[in-house]
Structures are given as C-alpha cells and as structure tokens.
Amino acid sequence: MESTLFILCHFRLGGSHAEHCMGDVGSLPSYLEKHSPIHHNTPLLLGLDRADISATDLSRIVSDFEAMGYKIYVSNLGANYPREIRAAVQFQLALKSSMFMGNSVSTFTAAIMLARQSLG
C-alpha cells in the first residue's frame, strides 16, 4: 500500500485514556519536538476522538503545535458519527499515512501497527 505524505498522531482524551495512556496531553507537542523525527514541513493530522475533547483543550493543543511551526490538521468527525465509523476512518488514515504515532498501551494502536507491518 502506498503511503501519503502526512503523519497521523492518534490519541483519545476521555475517561481512563488520559489518565493511563497520555498523562498530560498538553505536553505532547513539546515531547514530539524533543523525541520524534517529524519535519515541520510534513503535515501532521491529529486523529482525535473529538467527542472526548473540549473546544478549549483542542484549541490549546493546535496552538501549541502551530507555535512550533507544524502544519496541523484535525480530523473532524466528532460525535456526528458512531464510534465504529470514527475508528474505521482513523484506521484507514493510519494505513495511508507516511508515519503513524499512537499509544504503546492502546489496542487500537497495536492493531494499526500490525496492519501497517503486514502491508509493508
């Protein structure tokens, strides 16, 4: 499968996901800046489950990335579609992206990583 030149960063913020998986999601932009080979000219798609995030938090995260020079896009399915549809869209985007970033304790991330590996 041929990838498209964008990076998908997938994470959820609601319930136990923030507590057990992401910790303080506000630190994500600075963490990626220090530990990731992302080039600022490569578009970064934030694959958020927008049903789990407040407009204030989303605005802060996007602003932090933009302040670092990233070209940010946010998937916008939100609560308009059932969870299964949102997951299917995120899964396909993850398969098409040139780089995928997820959470090491997420079963969704694990499924994406396996699928990407099997596709080459």
Could you walk me through the main structural features you see in this protein, from its secondary elements to its overall organization?
The chain has 120 residues and is α/β, with parallel strands linked by helices. The protein has helices at residues 16-22, 28-35, 55-67, 83-96, 107-119; strands at residues 4-11, 44-48, 72-74, 97-101. The chain is built from five helices and four strands.
What is the structure about, briefly put?
This protein has 120 residues and is an alpha/beta fold. It has helices at 16-22, 28-35, 55-67, 83-96, 107-119, and strands spanning 4-11, 44-48, 72-74, 97-101. It has five helices and four strands; from the N terminus they run E-H-H-E-H-E-H-E-H.
Q: Work out the radius of gyration.
A: 14 Å
Low-confidence stretches: 16-22
**Secondary structure tally: strands:** 4
Helices and strands, in order, run as EHHEHEHEH
Shape: globular
Strand arrangement in the largest pleated sheet = 3-2-1-4
Helix fraction bin: 40-55%
Mean pLDDT across residues: 76
- Find the structural class using helix and strand composition: alpha/beta
For the largest beta-sheet, the strand count, sense and barrel status come to: 4 strands, parallel
Percentage of β-strand residues: 15-25%
- N/C terminus separation: 7 Å
Tally of alpha and pi helices? 5
Oligomer: single chain
Element layout with pairings:
Elements: E1 4-11, H1 16-22, H2 28-35, E2 44-48, H3 55-67, E3 72-74, H4 83-96, E4 97-101, H5 107-119
Parallel strand pairs: 1-2, 1-4, 2-3
